[in-house]
Specification:
The complex is a heterodimer of chains A (92) and B (117). Chain A is an all-alpha fold and 92 residues long. Chain A has one domain (2-88). Chain A is 88% helix and 0% strand. In chain A, helix 2 packs antiparallel against helix 3 (63-88). By secondary structure, chain B is mainly alpha-helical. Chain B has helices at 2-29, 33-58, 63-91, 102-106, 112-116. The longest helix of chain B is centred in the middle third of the chain and has 29 residues, at 63-91. The termini of chain B are far apart. The mean pLDDT of chain B is 83. The chains are: A mainly alpha (92), B mainly alpha (117). Chains A and B meet through helix 1, helix 2 and helix 3 of A and helix 1, helix 2 and helix 3 of B.
């Protein structure tokens, strides 16, 4: 009984997160200034992490958490590099 | 034992999704860049970390990797928000409804008024 509730919440959580990713992507397209677009790009990375976590729960396979770890590291480095490039106009 | 873990997973997923939706809602509705960073910080720290707590509780053999990812996210979230807000300040993005600007008085960074002027 509890397993069906868990499955239902997992699929609704997945649907909600995909809708949120759509909103963040629309925000990249319609951002008013450059920092706004960069924030929404970072938000897309974070929400993809959430989707990966939910998929790891649905399939009960912990390989997706490794993917999420790699994505978290790269997303973090990318956002920091872009923020520095945006502020100083030179990367290094 | 499984029932308890499933219960923990359900509660964590519901809380994580609630935080994510609130964060993205705040990201859309808030007036300027700096307040939006406040909202997206919530998504990154609370939303995903609670979902990962659910994966730690319920996926087999996944608890160690989940904990490593949770610690990394708790460290990386605030750093990203700080980098973005200092970059926005240096570029000179104006505040929507700022009452005081401490960084300007200390004249360490070019404040939006000077840069914009």
């Amino acid at each position: 009984m509890l397993a069906t509730i868990l499955n239902a919440t997992l699929y609704t959580a997945l649907a909600i997160h995909v809708v949120l990713i759509g909103v963040a992507l629309w925000r990249i397209w319609r951002g008013e200034n450059i920092v706004d677009r960069l924030i929404s790009a970072d938000l897309v990375t974070v929400l993809t992490l959430a989707v990966l976590a939910v998929i790891a729960l649905i399939t009960r396979n912990s390989i997706y958490i490794d993917v999420a770890l790699g994505l978290a590291a790269l997303g973090f480095i990318g956002t920091i590099a872009l923020a520095k490039y945006m502020a100083d106009e030179q990367m290094f | 034992m499984d029932e308890i873990l499933q219960l923990i997973a359900i509660i964590a997923v519901v809380a994580g999704t609630a935080f994510s939706t609130l964060g993205v809602l705040g990201f859309i509705r808030l007036p300027d860049v700096y307040t939006r960073l406040h909202a997206t910080g919530k998504v990154g720290v609370f939303g995903v970390v609670l979902l990962l707590a659910a994966t730690v509780a319920w996926t087999p053999l996944g608890w160690s990797k989940g904990l490593v990812l949770i610690i990394f996210l708790l460290l990386a979230g605030p750093v990203t928000s700080h980098a973005l807000s200092s970059a926005a300040y240096r570029i000179g993005i104006p505040f929507a409804t700022a009452v005081r600007d401490d960084l300007a008085e200390s004249s360490e960074g070019g404040s939006p008024e000077e840069v914009a002027a």
